[in-house]
Structure prediction request, 238 residues.
Amino acid sequence: MLRTEAVKKVYAQKRGNVTGLDDLTLEIPEGDFVAIVGPSGCGKSTLLLTLGGMLSPTSGKVLLEEQSLYDLAPDERAKLRRKVVGFVFQQFNLVPYLTARENIEVPLYLAGLDPAKQTARAGELLERVGLAERAEHKPSELSVGQQQRVALARTLANDPRLILADEPTGNLDPETAEEVFGFLEALNSEGRTVVLVTHDPNSAKRCKRTLKLRDGRLEDGCTTTTQANSASPGTQPL
Ligand code: ADP
Ligand code: MG
Prediction:
């Protein structure tokens, strides 16, 4: 599904260069559910953005379904990303002046769906996340957990095969976090590939495997290629 080859990301700063990713090679097969863990600043968000076609590496390759993302023209890359990848962020990035339904319609509009179909699909997605009766509410009128569920519904709008989630439960109380994690589990069991950045060891344990990052590299003892699903959750290195 997804593969990196010696990916390096260096941020050029006035006070010197900062290395975000350092020669990172990894492989994520279709259907995998990977937790990415590591201390703050170790490159987790940089990795996720690079994997999703949102941030060009300084060198190295990212292959999404065998297409070298950063060898594509920017508009081709954006097209592939919209078709295949769904992002979930910690700050839900909902548009504050749009209703829940309208927020979900944005990617459908961008995909060129006609307005009636946008509304129908947004309705289905709101139902799926249990918010059908909140369709016409603005984000500020929803609880934090409900806002994250709207963001999840929006992520699912284009039926992505790959879901990249950057600490999606970081701002949520334990109960709501559990609910959002449960959605990710359900999406994975439908066959979608899920890559989750998390600080929560219990969530990481429930993923199929864990990749530990430190200083932009995978920590020793972590598999860089995978035998997805072969290990039971309890036997994975954390
Ligand atoms: P994490 O998500 O694990 O906390 P990040 O990927 O955000 O880590 O950051 C990795 C490193 O790259 C950090 O040292 C961070 O300060 C640096 N970094 C991240 N984004 C930028 C940026 N836009 N400009 C400069 N440095 C950055
Ligand atoms: Mg981060």
